[in-house]
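Re-run with default settings, no changes from the original entry. Doing this only to confirm the output is reproducible before filing.
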Amino acid sequence: MHDHAHHAGQNLRFAFFVNFVFTFIEIAGGIWTGSVAILSDAVHDAGDCISLGLAWYLQGVSDREANDRFTYGYRRLSALGALITGCVLIIGLSFILWESVHRLFEPKPVRAGGMVALAIVGVLANGAAAWRLRGGRSLNEQVATWHLLEDTLGWIAVLIGGAIMAFWDVPIIDPILSLGISAFVLVNVVRNLNKVALVFLQAAPAGFDVDQFRREAIALPNVIELHDTYTWTLDGERHVIATHLLMRAGATREDICVAKGELYRLLRDREFEHITIETELEGEHCNSAFPPAGHTCH
């Protein structure tokens, strides 16, 4: 886990510096080509630098050890970085969408050759950063990847539009491409932000079926019921669970250890780091404030 977090931090650092350098190239290129679209994207990339820098910092902090105040550690800071990055990206996309709609009605001539040259650099720079982050497991990396993919696709649109405008005077091509790509990226960013929201709302980990896990537990020897199961995820990767395991009255200490060991194995295979299993014997008083239907505490 530590190696993965370190690798994620390195990837975000690489993405930050690529974006930082390219922002200054964009500003100069926008002034040279006379393209308001490129200058507006430079402002957007400046915001990217802030969010990617923050994501890089929070990813590093999230790997700190737990302490008396943050007993689960700082894992959720990675999700916080994803939330901030996603919100900044939505703001930037909204700005680009507004500019694109405006240009649909008021197309402006630009220096097409300069746009093509700058777009090639933009595709290479942002594409390299997006490629570096591909397959990231943390929500932070996933949202940052869409951040960079949005930039890459935007520059592909500029490249196509610039190439067309180099031969034909149709400046409306640029905003049309920009609108389509921005809408596509926006849908995926919202989807990732929904995952982040579920983390903060302490929903069950994605892909973990509580009912299926309960059935697997009941199938174990001497196990009667699994109840009061509470589970959530710290950052989308590392999960927490607490549950009560009801054993038959005649179950021995060895039987209990075997059942708990099997449950630990099942949960470890599903990326659970913090596991609490309370065991009770049939007819024994349980400490649950809300026993499930059909289960009685004596």
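The first helix runs from residue 2 to 33. DSSP finds eight helices and three strands in the chain.
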